[in-house]
Amino acid sequence: MLTVGAEIDRPEHRVGERPVLRLVVTNISDQPCIRDLDSARQEIVVWGAGGARIWSSNDCVNAGSADLRTLVPGQPVAFAVRWAGRTSSPGCAAPRTEVPAGEYNVMSRVDDAISAATAFRRVP
After folding, report:
1. pTM above 0.85, yes or no
2. 2 Cβ partners below 8 Å, 6+ apart?
């Protein structure tokens, strides 16, 4: 019933800029549905060359709480984060470092529904 997409505000950013990453959920059925879109159930992830996990929106945040939404057919709902361009790790345990220039992908998910990858580039 749902599709999940990943978007970035521009396909190219300079190192040091803070791109806006978006998770977009769309009800593709012909009926409204109620879905829990709690922040713990959704995630935006940046991947590097060779599939290396660079950053996740869930790494350094507190647990969420229920966020029941009525999703209207065909009407997208977007959640945006401004990425600082730094790495992260689960629980924010590792030091965070600046992500260098290069080719990257952003993907998003809600529960087990995963988006296609959206490519972007960081330039010096």
Report:
1. yes
2. 25, 26, 27, 28, 33, 35, 71, 110, 113
